[in-house]
Amino acid sequence: MSVGSSSSSSARRSASTESSAVLDDVDRAILHELERDGRQSNKDLAARVGIAPSTCHARVRALRESGVLRGFTAQVDPQALGRGLQAIIAVRLQAAARARLGRFARALAERPEVQDVYLLGGSDDVLVHVAVADSQALRAFVVEHLSTRQEVAHTQTSLVFEHLHLPADAR
């Protein structure tokens, strides 16, 4: 789940939330256009998809209500907020703590330093993308919120040299 620091708590819900909605070609076109430009007006969106604005509005509302469209967020440059150092931290939990994985991940997602949280299969349980002011702040985050917690068995921190955000058309 990709979540920027300006996103709402509803956008930080677990990526495992599943929707039972069935998407048709118009819904897929709407979603594609919103991924490309989430700020476009309903009128422009309807014109790009080839439907009436009232139909477009109803479909976007239905996509939101069904959980397919999770929300709209701003992507803020962490550097602009004084968080110029980014890192990806792999976390492995103690075997006995894996039953509390969801609660652990949600608690991390509420931290202001946290950009994204990924629940994994494999040797690590969680990947945490953080943006902090400097190396001291990174160390403090790892020590205070990860490595000193009883449920954490291991962490491995990798610095991010550059984060490339791919536009929807490149995916």
Summarize the structure.
With 171 residues, the chain is an alpha+beta fold. It contains 5 helices and 4 strands; from the N terminus they run H-H-H-E-H-E-E-H-E.
Q: Globular, elongated, flat, extended or rod-shaped: what is the shape?
A: elongated
Distance between the termini: 15 Å
* SS-derived structural category: alpha+beta
Spans where pLDDT lies below 50 across 5 or more residues: 1-19
In terms of DSSP E residues, the strand content is 15-25%
Tally of contiguous helical segments = 5
Largest sheet: 4 strands, antiparallel
Average predicted confidence as pLDDT: 86
Radius of gyration: 19 Å
Find the count of extended strands (DSSP E, 2+ residues): 4
Q: Which sequence of SSEs, written as H and E, runs from N to C?
A: HHHEHEEHE
Helix content, binned percent: 25-40%
Strand order of the largest sheet: 2-3-1-4
Keywords:
alpha+beta; 171 residues; four-stranded antiparallel beta sheet; 18% strand; elongated; 5 helices
Structural write-up:
The chain has a four-stranded antiparallel β-sheet, covered by helices on one side. Strand 2 and strand 3 form a beta hairpin. The protein is an alpha+beta fold and 171 residues long. The protein has helices at 25-36, 42-49, 53-66, 101-109, 135-147; strands at residues 85-93, 114-119, 126-132, 152-160.
List the helices and strands and how they pair.
Elements lengths: L24 H12 L5 H8 L3 H14 L18 E9 L7 H9 L4 E6 L6 E7 L2 H13 L4 E9 L11
Antiparallel strand pairs: 1-3, 1-4, 2-3
